[in-house]
Amino acid sequence: MFTETIQYLQDQGLTHPQVGLILGSGLGxxxxxxxxxxxxxxxxxxxFPVSTVAGHAGQLVYGDLAGKKVLILQGRFHYYEGYDLNxxxxxxxxxxxxxxxxxxxxxxAGGINxxxxxxxxxxxxxxxxxxxxxxxxxxxxxxxxPRFVDLTETYSLRGQAILRQAAAKEGIHLQQGVYTxxxxxxxxxxxxxxxMRTIGGDAVGMSTVPEAIVAKHCGMEVLGISCxxxxxxxxxxxxxxxxxMEISAxxxxxxxxxxxxxxxxx
Length: 266
Ligand code: HPA
What we know:
The structure is a single chain. The protein is an alpha/beta fold. The protein has helices at residues 3-11, 85-88, 90-98, 157-170, 190-198, 209-217, 241-265, and strands spanning 19-23, 35-41, 59-65, 68-74, 102-111, 121-129, 174-181, 203-205, 221-231. It has a single domain (2-136, 144-264), classed as Nucleoside phosphorylase domain (Rossmann fold, 3-Layer(aba) Sandwich). Helix content is 30%, strand content 25%. Strand 6, helix 4 and strand 7 form a beta-alpha-beta unit. The two termini are 31 Å apart. It binds hypoxanthine. Pathway: Purine metabolism; purine nucleoside salvage. InterPro entries: Nucleoside_phosphorylase_d, Nucleoside_phosphorylase_sf, Pur_Nuc_Pase_Ino/Guo-sp, Purine_phosphorylase.
């Protein structure tokens, strides 16, 4: 199933990736800092999902960043776009097949925790899956991992410590907390946000959890970062995607520094 994709990517020179990165809304620019880059549009890759949204054509970027060989997914696939979760997480399995050991997943998220501000960066320490689906449903891929996956430490404690160390180096303030996954694409209601706060959610978003579960299934180390782009529904007067993009653009320089320092320490 993966052979054709892997063969093609290895033929293009994607031979030794160490760290896989998935860049969230407004955070894709980090891929422009990769040196000795090989950039491959998704539509050129056999069996790879293709973005259906105009102007969202994604690409894989391979090369050197902060002393590591990285493989970046510049543009991810969301469940709300209509892809099934096998498709959403196909690139993560390709990371595994190419030899990636650590995956850094990033996203834009709404802040549920009342001490968060738009523009904060949050280490994901754990997640709550409220999407009513799981990317591991279906026949188990025994070659990648077990049927019943332990999610006790989905987001590696070592990785969390490295993120803190990387932030401290730059004087970057980091929040930490639990990311709550919903399907979207509608934003939440204020009542849903109150519910999520009650059950322990600190942030809410429409991505990341399927990729993290599959990465964990494959035995890869997972690090997660949320960019808090807004206060969640009911905590500010209204929500819109333009604000999400505007705040993530402002956070970008800090985000890039954090990821580069993290890569150097991994
Ligand atoms: N809710 C869900 N997803 C999001 C939000 C939000 O408030 N902000 C950015 N992505």
